Amino acid sequence: MAVINRSDLQYRYKWTADKGDNPLYIGKKDRDLVDRDEGYEVLNFLNSVCDTKEQALHAERLIKTLLPGKTQNRNEIHQWLIDNWQN
User: Where in the sequence is the domain holding 52, given as residue range(s)?
Assistant: First the structure.
């Protein structure tokens, strides 16, 4: 069950796939990387790592405002959130 829905997100996102990207693609690269500007990728990531809506909204804020631009790998983003949760 999803902890957060599209309507809950606090920031603006693109909801169409970038050129060469497909929201239905399930290849390894798309599974491993999160494009922080694409709503469906952020939403999927938040729902996969958060247990509550409050956690998801806090994680979204950290991702959109503090996450270093070069950090794109799902595992790296998750670890960065753990390390920076108090920010």
Answer: 1-6+28-87
Contact 51, 9 (CB under 8 A): no
> Tens-digit pLDDT profile for the chain (87 aa)?
899 999 999 999 999 876 655 555 554 445 689 999 999 999 999 999 999 999 999 999 999 999 999 999 999 999 999 999 998
- Domain-embedded: residue 14: no
Distance CA 63, CA 80 (A): 9
The pTM assigned to this predicted structure is 0.84
Query: Does 38 reside within a domain?
Result: yes
DSSP line for 16-78: SPPTT--TT--SHHHHHB--TTBHHHHHHHHHHH-SSHHHHHHHHHHHHHTS-TT--BHHHHH
